[in-house]
Amino acid sequence: MWGKRELRAHLQERLGVGERQLQRLVAKRAAELPSTTDEALYVRAHENGLRLQNYLTPMQIADVRALVQGRSVAPAPAPTPRTAASRKSTTRSPEFIVDAITVPAGVLSERHFRDATLMAKDVYPLLYAFENSAREFIDGHLVVTYGSDWWDDSKLVSTGVRRTVEISRRAERENRTHGARNARPIYYTTFGDLVSIVESENGRKVFKPPLFPRATWFTELVKSSEHSRNIVAHMNPLSGHDIKRLRIDIADWMNQIKGHLPPTVP
Fold this sequence. Notes:
Blueprint: H1 4-15, H2 19-32, H3 37-47, H4 58-70, H5 81-88, E1 96-98, E2 101-103, H6 110-146, H7 159-174, H8 191-198, H9 203-206, H10 217-233, H11 240-257
Antiparallel strand pairs: 1-2
Helix pairs in contact: 2-3, 3-4, 4-11, 6-11, 8-10, 10-11
């Protein structure tokens, strides 16, 4: 991967300007945003069609996205003919490989290609780790307290949650061409179902200090992250601001549970 020096050089080439003129353009953009000089440089590069994943870390790209999407950004100056010609060649995705499957050039727009790269690196693994660690944590502590058949306790799992999960499990059994999930029912629950279990009559007896700092903590955490989770579930990208907030929520979760893990994972 290239760095900032190469990005500056490629942006100068794209704009057809010298170093001093680029400095003036970047300084003007920094005042418009407002932002640091480096951030303004990256925004300029993004606006002129450079693929930032070739130069920046995922964290830096998220910051640029936050600047572009989360603030009032003045329009970039009209492109020169050279810039327009360069942009024409970058409006569609290049050929790329996903898990040994070749995706032909042009299948995605450049924007969707950039979003897919960012989400695959930063967002999907975070959500996967969050959701499944929550299920393992809740399941493990309920097994310790109530035994491995805690799912059958009506004071832990409501009839509605149990019915919804059973419908999902039945559909999975009937569709044998698709791989099955974990056999334990909790792996068929939604985040809302997990909140229902934690806040149930017998759940509140377990998920209290020191496991959770307060009675409503897990519910607040889920509500904060669930909107982002739903956006991602429908294959839409998150803004840089939302990615930062999701990182904070998941970091809070991991910091809270690391000293209170159940002895085993069922």
